[in-house]
Sequence to fold (627 residues):
Amino acid sequence: MTAVTILENEPRLSVRPRFVSTLLAAGKGLGTVVAVLLFASFGTFALGALAGTSPGAVALGSDATPAAIKAFNHNIGYDRPLLVRYVDWLTSALKGDLGTSWFSGIPVAQSLADRLPVSLSLAGLALLIAVVAGGTAGILAGMKRRTLIDRAITVVSGALSTLPPFVAGIALIVIFSVGLGALPSGGYSPAQAGFGTWLSFLILPAIALSLDAACEITRQLRTGIVAAMDENYVTGAVVRGLTPRRIMFGHVLRNAAGPALAVVGLHIPRLIGGAVVTEAVFALPGIGQLARDSALQGDIPVVQGILLVVLGLVLVSNTIVNVLLERLRPHAARSDS
Amino acid sequence: MNRIRHIIRTNRTARIALIVLAVVAVLVAFGGWLAPYDPLKQGDAILQGPSGSHWLGTDNLGRDTLSRLLAGSRLSVLGAVEATAVGVVLGAIPGLLSVYIGRTGEWLLLRLMDALLALPFIIVAIAVTGVTGGGLHPAMVTVGVLFAPTFFRISRSATLGLRHAGYVEAAELFGSSTTRLVARHVWRKVATPIAVAAANTTGAGLLIVSSLMFLGIGVAPPAPTWGGMLATDLNYLTQAPLAPLAPALLIMATVGALNLLADAIREDTPAARTARVRTPWKERARVNAH
Fold:
């Protein structure tokens, strides 16, 4: 019996060392993620305490006496210590309850659920464009290094990265909406109403949002490829008579993609944060618009809820990127600095 | 100072970048004074193109675009500089110290920086501005705090690399205190990568400041800013499609000059200079300061 179990277990271990190491990396990352989540969510929550306003002041209006406001806050437990309220907030947030808006009374989770699809499709599409366009340009520049193509790509990506995201958006509107009249300059239609319409509303904002990340991916990928091309294993592969294409995609890219992938991880918060500006330019009803409106209004629970959800999104996607990095380069020693 | 003089003498790109930045500095210092018109004065001639009396045309309320551009440069650029300064102070010093303060403190600092890195600039800046009741300073300090991890990482990794350098160990053997060690021997070497990152970050900061101003965060409407002008232009694109060009180009030129300057400083280290002479055919992998 035991022999059978051992026989059954042994090949599994030797077949999946990589899977195990991936799991290990994920587990190691989890400790960090939890610590980061606690730090950042406490910061988010403490932000509300900085505000001079309270639910009582908002609900009772400007005519209320300080005593009435105090009583109201006491009734809903707002006068408890900050740490107690934080633990309370975080535990109910993990169960999906983010509280209700002070002004409209709508549950925060509901208004987020309404708007999240818009922001997620925008950020996802932008990420896709950034990876495809930036990746192609980076590989092209790295393969044809120090040719006209390489120089053109370097100059163009350098120039585009100085472009503020909203300027890119305005330029795209001027060209495609005002000039050609081909695409709508703003607004949104859900994917259920037709994929083509959905895409026509999202393509310009996604391009505008993706530029920054695309340029950075191009730059990192080019640098990585140029550095990897000088390695001995490339010389070895050339000597063995492999085709340039095979060397690039089989050997070089695997080693050169690490920094570029790390850039993707770093840019995910910026894609989600930058979406605020893009949403404003293209009048998209996403969480960025909600964040701006409720922050200017002083609707603290909504602001806190948005920050927490964005934080969760960023942490999840960063963990995915880290696991991918681990899979891509088995020898990747994750140094902490 | 010698380094900077050397860079100006040897590097043409750096010279151009510095000239652009000097012009921007003049705009920041004297922009409001140079403006031909009152940047808030409204007129009847609205949404005009460039002409002799209005070099860059007028906006939707008949205000002179050039005057608004000049008067708006101070808030726009100083906001970016403020954010970078906060980031350098809150990032570089803890980064240096993190190597020396022991394991628990080090772990906590690293996780704190990870947490800051996970927060998106613009949403957090908007939230803080909204909660604290407005004003540009809360927004810029927030952005600066979120810039801190960049400087933290750079100064930490530079310090880690230096800790076992011969001259640092020698100083340690001679009995120099940690404070003296850091202040005298380590800090100077860390300063160069910090300067590179600061130039890059100021550029990124300008983009973020302009984005915030574009969203109407931190600055009340009539006051001119580069980002705010673009926001007004957006509403009149069909009548004046070229109006956003001037503020956009000004932002791009400033950011581009800062990035070029950062590249020039980065490439002018003594090691890089010898490497260039000895192995001109080999491209050096650039250290990414982002």
Notes: The two ends of chain B are 24 Å apart (CA to CA). The domain at 2-37+55-289 of chain B is CATH 1.10.3720.10 (MetI-like fold). Residues 275-290 of chain B have pLDDT under 50 and may be disordered.
